[in-house]
Amino acid sequence: MGRGIPAVAVPVLWLFAAFLVSGAGSAPVEAQQPGGQEADDPVRELVSRLTLDEYKATLKGLTRFGDRRQGTQRNRDAVDWIEATLQDFGCTTTERVHYQYPPAGAQPRRSFADPLSPRPPPPPPNENTGTPTGGDVGRRGPGPGGSVIFGYRARTGVNRDPMAQPDERIRELNREEPVDGDRSQVFCTKVGATRPDEMYILGAHMDGHGVNEAVDDDGSGTALVMELARIFSSPDVETERSIRFVLWNNEETGLNGARAYVEQREALQGVEDPPGSGRYPEPGWLGMIQHDMMLWDHGAPGPDGRVSRDQRPEADVNIEFQSNAELATEAMELAFFFKAANEQYATDYPATVGPHMTNTDSTPFMHLTPAISLRENERGAQVGAGWNPNWHQPTDVWTTYTDDDFRLGLNAAQTTLAAIAQLVGATVER
Ligand SMILES: [Zn+2]
Predict the structure, then answer these.
(1) Which domains does the chain have, with CATH numbers?
(2) What are the backbone angles phi and psi of residue 293, rounded to the nearest 5°?
(3) Strand 181-190 vs strand 317-320: parallel, antiparallel, or unpaired?
(4) For residue 164, how far is its CA from the centre of ligand 1 (angstroms)?
(5) pTM of the predicted protein model
């Protein structure tokens, strides 16, 4: 035994010393620059501008339009309100994408999100006992998007019965039934200072259904994207690359708004118009990040098919890519970049990465650009198994949620803001 430290132990000791310096539970070592420069971190400054009160106020503003179901006046009014609010927030470059629903010549779509589709077949009975308990229960069964569902599951579906809504005011708001025809959706853009020809797309869908206020699905994602538009549009914020904030319509009928965007704009990517102007109506797509249902993480249904009223202690933000996308590897790398941003900058909840993004507005993009979604739960195995009893139900209303739920949504906002600020090279003028 020599008295010196074996050479092989030195790196280990350095790591241990770094751990002591950083302190358990605080930000990673690299976030803490010598000399207290952390205070100058523009990402931390931008994240600090997100507040629970403002997130809730924007989300509450959306509830005045009921469930914002596509093809109704309340949906059109909501699009107008979103456009006016984005402009108030300083994101004055608003534009619309126009399209028809149903799409001309299209067969009726049969998607999981389409209420006209037949219900998915019931899962097999409990293999352990042979008897169903509570909801449709299996210890192991197929879920949407290639996922596998373990454990208890509760029924899911879409409420179409106005009388199922006990609140008369909310029932009245949602009285009008949809008609086929013209549709539009709104977006605005933060134009990059040095790379205006490249952008990340941040999305959420503003339409909902179920004779409710569509608070979680997807007022929660819509308000998140609008709050990020507000913060990045502040006059003291500059970004090298562009960011587009899109509030999709017709998600619930089969992602029709996002599909229309891809059909109309994919070929325009990176084209300067007019030539020599330095203007790019459709900057090249660097990635598409969707936010769909951000609030509710109360755990799995129990044997009786019921879900707890309380948030579960393990509540987290679920970041998902799609394992069979052509750009799955790039999307996975993007997802883990978001997870790292969460670890460094989110205040209350961790993030988890999973491979089954499945059915949301990022799906039409996933073979064309790295596409991920952020959610309250895994889309396939958890939302699909009935973890959210308010999904498309009369209970998706403001009074269902507590600040624990809203704060989970805020942490998803912190995660996306921190990741995107780094990816676009955001700086804050001092
Ligand atoms: Zn949704």
Answers:
(1) 50-428 (3.40.630.10)
(2) 75, 95
(3) unpaired
(4) 20
(5) 0.86
